[in-house]
Design a protein that fits this description.
Length: 416
């Protein structure tokens, strides 16, 4: 998963570096605006992937393969309907969107709708592969997506298709990887019924466990929404309260911090289905959490040390220039995102064990951070200290909630 996600992010970066150097500034601005909209609309689909991963992992250890197939069919149909609705909305609302973004070509908005269709469907097979612990297939699919986007982007630009070619590369990359993800899922999904046979009341069972699925879906959705706000609302408020130049410096520094934030993601993608399987079997989970925290902590702290020692180098690599105003911001961002990265591991632990108490500090601190930045924003450093205080508080609060299981916690410490 480290290799898969690492190469996926690398090819995404290369795609953007190529586009920013070959497209005219105005066209790249259009592309970046459309991709920002693409990311915002497609973010909720990650909730679907997390939900599917959780229940597929639980059903697998109980040999309930019929439930897995029902779950996947249900969400594949649901996400296809939602994705098609967004496609129609963008197709008919294309002129309005083109006018809003000041884009003369309606074609790119249509291509955006196509890209969104596949991007909202693909979390279903990705969640299935993750839940079945088929990490090799999932990683290869991610790599395929990144390579196709980069390679087709180069080809279409050299063919003279401009921004339409850049968007077309994204459409084809998601179309191909969605097809192969569904194919891989079909290959890996066991066709036997397993030890446990179908229940005598399938209709009642269907309503019961899909009620649990959607209840869990709402929990995951609230968790993702709060975490996205915690790690992004500061940038939105800074753009509102500060001058454009200062907001630009803040954005560059945030890019460095986000690298640290997403470094533990491969650990989470492996840890989460493992914990879900252990929870379904009634086995202890904290020892797995402790190992994940140790590995994630080592990686994040090494990245933090690099960010503290070589902020100028990181800024030069990402932006091509060294902005001295960004150096102190990068250092504080590195600390803040380290706490958020470790907190993300703890949040996924709570989600794997069906815990909900963690939502109280999560929601409260999200509101507190937003309110404090809105009230106190004399300098960028002040904003970052508010974010850092919230990040540290959230990390401590989640550790405390886990410590409420004293017996298992002590055994995990001994095992670790």
């Amino acid at each position: 998963m480290f290799v898969g996600i690492g190469l996926f992010n690398l090819f995404n970066l290369l795609y953007h570096l190529f586009m920013v150097r070959t497209l005219p500034p105005a066209e790249y601005g259009h592309l970046n605006a459309l991709l920002s909209l693409f990311m915002i609309i497609s973010v909720p689909s990650s909730t679907v992937q997390t939900t599917i991963t959780k229940f597929v992992s639980s059903f697998q250890v109980q040999y309930e393969y019929h439930r897995i197939r029902e779950l996947l069919r249900h969400f594949l149909l649901l996400m296809s309907i939602i994705a098609f609705s967004f496609f129609l909305l963008l197709s008919f609302g294309g002129p309005i969107l083109s006018s809003f973004f000041q884009i003369s070509s309606y074609r790119v908005v249509f291509l955006l709708g196509l890209a969104l269709f596949f991007a909202m469907v693909i979390p279903v097979p990705w969640g299935g592969l993750q839940g079945l612990h088929k990490f090799g297939s999932l990683a290869s699919n991610l790599i395929m997506n990144g390579i196709l986007k980069f390679a087709l982007g180069i080809l279409f630009i050299y063919l003279g298709w401009g921004i339409s070619g850049a968007m077309g590369a994204i459409v084809l990359s998601y179309f191909v990887t969605t097809f192969f993800a569904l194919l891989m899922l079909g290959i890996h999904l066991p066709r036997r019924e397993g030890i446990i046979q179908k229940d005598k009341n399938p209709k009642g069972l269907y309503l019961s466990y899909f009620s649990d699925v959607y209840h869990y879906f709402l929990t995951v959705g609230m968790t993702m929404l709060c975490f996205i706000l915690l790690t992004n609302i500061d940038l939105i408020l800074v753009k509102h309260f500060f001058k454009p130049v200062e907001a630009g410096y803040y954005s560059i520094a945030q890019m460095v911090g986000k690298i640290i934030l997403f470094l533990p993601l491969p650990i989470i993608m492996v840890m989460f289905p493992k914990l879900s399987s252990l929870e379904a079997q009634g086995r202890k989970t904290l020892s797995t959490l402790m190992r994940s925290l140790i590995i994630g902590g080592v990686i994040s702290i090494l990245a933090l040390i690099f960010g503290l020692l070589f902020p100028s180098l990181l800024i030069r690599i990402l932006s091509g220039k060294v902005y001295l105003e960004c150096v102190p911001l990068v250092k504080i961002f590195s600390v803040n995102m380290t706490f958020f990265a470790l907190t993300l591991i703890l949040l996924y632990y709570h989600l794997s064990t069906h815990g909900t108490r963690f939502l109280y500090p999560l929601i409260s601190l999200t509101l507190i951070q937003t309110g404090l930045i809105a009230l106190f924003h004399k300098t960028l450093i002040q904003v970052l200290f508010i974010v850092g205080g919230v990040a540290l508080s959230l990390f401590i609060a989640n550790l405390f909630l886990i410590y409420k299981k004293p017996v298992e916690y002590r055994s995990a410490l001994l095992a670790g």
